[in-house]
Design goal:
By secondary structure, the chain is of the alpha+beta class. It folds into 3 domains: 54 residues; 246 residues, Spore Coat Polysaccharide Biosynthesis Protein SpsA, Chain A, CATH 3.90.550; 197 residues, 2-Layer Sandwich (Beta Polymerase, domain 2). The strands form 5 sheets. Strands 3, 4, 5, 6, 7, 8, 9, 12, 13, 15 and 16 form an 11-stranded mixed β-sheet that branches. The protein has a 5-stranded mixed β-sheet with strand order 14-10-11-17-18. The longest helix is centred in the first third of the chain and has 26 residues. The relative contact order is 0.08. Bound molecules: 2-acetamido-2-deoxy-beta-D-glucopyranose (NAG) (5 copies). The site of one 2-acetamido-2-deoxy-beta-D-glucopyranose has 4 residues, from loops. One 2-acetamido-2-deoxy-beta-D-glucopyranose binds next to loops.
């Protein structure tokens, strides 16, 4: 079933691609290099590559979509007016067209039997002894910072390390303005110091990038030691021989000795950036990555054209990788883990990424180790005060806001349960629990019923609501009577941009069940069992009518004047920002497996 769905998606995307391509060709035979077409093709390449990732368990389909991605990338290049060229894989000589002069000697695998390099295997692949190469100091500039945790002696050692292996390579070392570098012994290397207020600021790296005159630049923030584990020739070779590869990094080892290949994949969906370990393809024994977490070498001119965001005080490299992934899918980023950097890995507090996530409208950040960073308005986090609540029509409710609404409902239900007050879920809140076991991803408010007899008991709960940070409004008292029981009574509970309608009813099914010595029915809501109507599935079906398991946005969004009018499921509104990660119309209008984090892992 899932397989067929994916095929369908792929088919549609490919058809669109062909139609787009054809129509452009028909309408603009004179204007061949249309930037609009190139942009459409880029979006298509990104979509396809996300589709491919979800097919990773279906090798044949994965391979087929991979072929289509290659095709689209070729189209991008021909539209961009560049000639089409394949990535070179190892053993095949670099194309004469691209590399006019060999920059580094090719390498050769010497380890024909396992005795070569024994016992430590620090040898195996070796640069050939060619004569027509460019000296490494004409190719690479090293741009480095060291962590403030490094002592004067350790810094001295770092410079000596560079002097041992690459004495002539220009090094731009960025230092804190307050650092006294007069006291350093000048090591014998081509070193220049530059002082900045903020070493991680995008503006700092941007300025330095403009100073680089060699064709390659090694960006090495927070470097601690320098040994022959850093093989500059290896990185230059990969970049030099693969036209589309713009960045090549290596593994890194942190201050605790923990090694990591630095390679992460990232997917953007539902206002969330999901990071994952692993790789989908490799060449030259380097693995293709979306994001590198350690130092990397880049093609200077290409990076200068792309630029580094000068406004970001932190996370400018993430921004660069995200831009490459989403706007330049034909460019390749790799990690060659045999090249290893010793770096200091600082703990990054969530708020450091505030500007970055704001730029990209990311409200949740899930790291490959499962750590979640909340942005947007999430109760109990550093920016719980930032703009809260309900997004526009056509958008999903951001994860943080959805959790906030679930929190209020769960709080109410817990308070009811603990104090012997009869409460139960109603309307869309019940529908959400029935369909998703949580709040509807496009919800606009929540609805809970209580028994009117319990009105004064609820009034007494005001201080508890206020202590939890919620506004408690007592808007209407009870009335007499329906079938001899008090009726009505209205409370409104506000919090984090949301409203919960908390309405009194003369009788509730839950109470009837209890009076008959039975358990009230409970449904799962965002991780908590809460009381619902007697038969939740029946109520949901009878209330919402045919196709209630298909989806449709809230009644107020669809254009109805009240919640009781019947409306049809199965269509989303248009998304005001096509391609935005929060667009509802990127989801199917049926099925709940697609909503939530489990889909991504
Ligand atoms: C290059 O020459 C050195 C010294 O003669 C030798 O040790 C090394 O094995 C040669 N490398 C290759 C790849 O032939
Ligand atoms: C720069 O120096 C100041 C003062 O010594 C220190 O507080 C700050 O953390 C340093 N920043 C970096 C990035 O080293
Ligand atoms: C040091 O590097 C710069 C490029 O950054 C170069 O212009 C200069 O000639 C180099 N100096 C020496 C002594 O090699
Ligand atoms: C809530 O109402 C029910 C039914 O009338 C009653 O049995 C119960 O004692 C009430 N609970 C409280 C806390 O007043
Ligand atoms: C967005 O993420 C939240 C939290 O992970 C999830 O509950 C919700 O269903 C997701 N919405 C969509 C439309 O996937």
């Amino acid at each position: 079933m899932r397989q067929r769905q994916f095929f369908f998606v792929v088919l549609i995307i490919m058809t669109l691609a062909i139609i787009t391509f054809m129509s452009y060709n028909l309408h603009s035979t004179t204007k061949r290099h249309s930037p609009a077409l190139a942009n459409d093709l880029r979006r298509l390449a990104v979509d396809l590559s996300e589709t491919q990732r979800s097919l990773v368990h279906l090798p044949l389909q994965f391979y087929k979509v991979g072929e289509s991605i290659q095709l689209v990338k070729h189209l991008i290049k021909s539209v961009d007016g560049q000639w089409v060229q394949e990535d070179k894989v190892s053993n095949s000589p670099p194309s004469k067209k691209y590399v006019t002069k060999r920059e580094v000697c090719p390498e050769k695998y010497m380890g024909k039997d396992s005795a070569y390099g024994f016992p430590f295997y620090r040898k195996g692949f070796e640069g050939e002894n060619c004569t027509d190469f460019v000296p490494i100091d004409k190719l690479v500039t090293m741009v480095a910072t060291s962590p403030k945790e490094l002592s004067q002696e350790e810094l001295q050692k770092l410079f000596e390390g560079i002097a041992t292996y690459y004495p002539r390579v220009p090094v731009i070392f960025m230092l804190n303005k307050t650092f006294n570098f007069e006291r350093l012994k000048k090591p014998s290397l081509n070193l220049s110091f530059t002082a900045f207020d903020d070493l991680m600021h995008g503006a700092t790296w941007s300025k330095i990038l403009k100073m680089v005159t060699t064709p390659y630049a090694l960006f090495a923030p927070d470097i601690m030691y320098f040994t022959d584990d850093v093989n500059l020739e290896r990185l230059v070779r990969v970049l030099s021989e693969n036209r589309d590869t713009i960045i090549a990094g290596g593994s890194h080892k942190n201050q605790r000795g923990e090694w990591d290949n630095s390679c992460r994949q990232v997917q953007f969906r539902n206002w969330t950036a999901y990071f994952a370990d692993g790789y989908y393809h490799s060449f030259n024994d380097c693995i293709a990555c979306d994001v590198l977490l350690g130092p990397f070498m880049t093609k200077t001119k290409q990076l200068q054209d792309l630029g580094i965001d000068q406004k970001l005080h932190f996370g400018a490299f993430h921004d660069l990788f995200w831009r490459l992934k989403l706007k330049h899918p034909e460019k390749v980023v790799v990690s060659c883990p045999d090249v290893m950097f010793d770096t200091y890995e600082p703990e990054v507090p969530d708020e450091k990424y505030d500007a970055l996530v704001k730029k990209w409208d990311v409200k949740k950040w899930v790291e490959s180790n499962g750590r979640v960073r909340w942005y947007g308005c999430r109760r109990g986090t550093h920016n719980s005060k930032s703009s809260c609540g309900i997004p526009g029509k056509g958008f999903t409710v951001p994860p943080c806001d959805l959790e906030n609404l679930a929190d209020i409902v769960k709080f109410i239900m817990r308070e009811c349960e603990n104090t012997g007050i009869h409460c139960q879920l109603n309307a869309g809140t019940l529908l959400g629990a029935v369909k998703f076991k949580k709040i509807l991803p496009w919800e606009r408010d929540a609805d809970v019923y209580f028994i009117s007899d319990n009105y004064t008991a609820i009034q007494k709960l005001r201080p508890r609501f206020e202590a939890a940070g919620y506004t408690f409004k007592d808007t209407k008292g009870t009335e007499c009577c329906t079938n001899g029981r008090r009726t009505s009574g209205i409370f409104l509970i506000y919090g984090n941009g949301w409203k919960v309608d908390f309405y009194g009813r003369p009788t509730l099914e839950a109470e009837i069940l209890v009076a008959n010595g039975q358990q009230p029915t409970k449904v799962m809501l965002a991780g908590q069992w809460v009381t619902a109507t007697r038969n939740p599935g029946l109520v949901a079906r009878n209330r919402y009518g045919p196709n209630m398991y298909h989806h449709v946005e809230h009644w107020s969004i669809v254009g109805n004047t009240h919640g009781d009018a019947l409306y049809k499921s199965g269509v989303w509104n248009k998304c005001p920002k096509p391609g935005h990660t929060g667009c509802l119309n990127q989801f199917q209008t049926d099925g709940d497996r697609q909503f939530g984090d489990h889909f991504m892992t």
